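Re-run with default settings, no changes from the original entry. Doing this only to confirm the output is reproducible before filing.
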Amino acid sequence: MKLLKKLAILTCLISPNALIAQGYDVEGTDYYKAKASTQIWLEDASNLYIEMAKAFACIIADSRTDATPNGVWKTLIDETKCGLGDSRSQALVLGSGINQSSRASNETPQEGSIWFTSADGNKYVVSVVLHESAEDFAPYGRWNFAYYMYSSPGMPDETFTADDSPATGFVLVGKDTDPQNPGGIVIENYERFEDDQLDSVRGKFVFSADLSTAKFIGRDQSFDNFGNPYDKGQAGRTNEDNYYQVSANFVEGELDVSSATDACFARNSSWKTGYQAALYDYTTGQEIPFTGAFNFTATVEETSLRGYFSQWGIWLNDEDLHPDPSSPTLEIFDDSNDSFDLIWTSGELLDSSRASVLSSSDYLNAAAGTSFVCTPSDTNDCLLGSGSSINAPFTYSEAKADSIEVSTNGTELYILSNVDHAEPLNLFHDANRNGEIDSGEKPIRYDFFVDWDRDSEADKYYSYSTEANGEREYDFNLDKEMSLTDSEGNVFTWNLNYHRWNHNYVAINEDGNKYEISPPLYLEKDYSFLNDDVNGSRSRQEDEDGEYWALSFDSPRNNPMGGYFDEVGNCEGSDDDGYICEIDLDNLTYNYSGDPDNTNTVFQFNGQSLHSQYYWGLETNLGYINVLNPKNGTILTDINDADKQYVILNKEMGNYLDRLDEGDEAACNDISFDTLAELGLGLSDIPDEGDYTLPQFSWTDQPAVTSDTCEVVIGKLGEGC
């Protein structure tokens, strides 16, 4: 039985443009291999109703059910690849399974059971039935997949059956019985999660045998970003050239016709945007490794927190949590459940010696124990941690009175403490100049930080604003900094501030090593290739200083909802005039995101992007469209080393179908519909839980396995398979 092919959606995938082979683009190079696996997909609201079908097809293929018609084996599945995690992430996230399969003969269906544990610890009981291979029923085969959640770390004291599980779902891929659609393909998708309220996605697709035409109906019950429930339905139909879609709300189980919006799209015209890219050596085609930012979780006073660690500091979803010098370390866990000690300090060390174009200084953590010299001048205050009346840490009243003692004679010495110090990685004044942090020597920090929402000074580590003209503002400046030089002549800045986002954060892994994030890489390119991978007209002009280019372009066509795209950064525009963005096109900056294990880390172009909550009138939060999307193979030069050249490769590209203008919407006349009856799909066609039997066995029924049991790792058969 052949592997299931990846499911397509309403349009054919758009292939990357062919490139002229260069040294980096020859067989065997990292660039060449990555180019072959580039993912390009259609961004459309209908994807919501077929995502689980694509995910389950991937699980079936990568568990190699075809290779084991009768037997027991173990599997490791890449959840990111199969769409079970963040679709924009390139991190390797593995789920594990125990699989059992049986088939009486080649003329009977192959039945399988899977006991699957996701990377986040959820346990699922799964049943699979394979009726026909993709060879016998092109292009997806004929198969069923059903599951229920058995347990979850979020509900540690509960286990479930198919009858009471809060999370269930199924996918049915089969033949269309309509004689008007010979060889047609039907895909039904149902998934639900029910806690206090129902959260479900369900839909039905009908494709022609050659996938040239399709129709669908779907329903989405969930919650918006503010926790408000919604209940929406969508339906659509295509011919070979165009796509017609209608969106409406559900009210008491029926579609509200008064809320309906419709749109006509061209299937052969799209707006492309790059989501993830990688950088490769121009000569060798080797991928340039970077370590990037990562998400994390933590528990504080029995409350679970979500956060993000990057070169710019940390973000926490709890605004009341602040660094406390008496408790400077917090245990955090990344999405792979690896543990780190997050150390936060009350200042920020910046490296000012590295040449850069877009920033005066780059974030840097110097090695613990580093000694620094501060030379006082009219422009450089060397802050003292001891004196006759003032001692660091500096108090709110001292800072407000601008009475923090500074050196006026000679140089002063400072030391960065190590991770084992009571105040790790803080800067200390070496008052006795012996190169060590002795008892009584003080850290150069404040003993407070600011909370705009408090009205008293009851807490030691909080300070407050005053009222002026009805608005909160600070009546004095709490920003302090001093210039430092290490023994090798490198210049640093100690930035002393009161806000959490101006503090220094370091993550120490379980081996005791500091997690290093790659600094931004500054690249230059004469942006004469304005015919990049985004459709639309464009031109450029130098500004009056000759430093920036004004990039004018046409974004995707009009939004009947109004508000088109949000104005972001230096971009301004309107529905009629497109957008004009002021961007430094000759000096491009790249920042990185990825996983702490430095596996498949990617970077994104740090340019302007446009965000739309509404996809051309159809309310779906589809994210960002980048203004600039350099083509694969674009050559970039390191500003700090002209001998270093790189090429860019887009690992993921999204395509937004071009919506036809009002005068051209007649192109959809043959496929538009005023009623669901005209579409040929009704509310009764939307799948429901009772349409398929969920697994009738439990987690405790899984077969025994040993170290010798065959293991399939992301589709590759192991020893003994």
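Helices lie at 30-36, 51-62, 396-400, 676-679. Residues 51-62 form the longest helix (12 residues).
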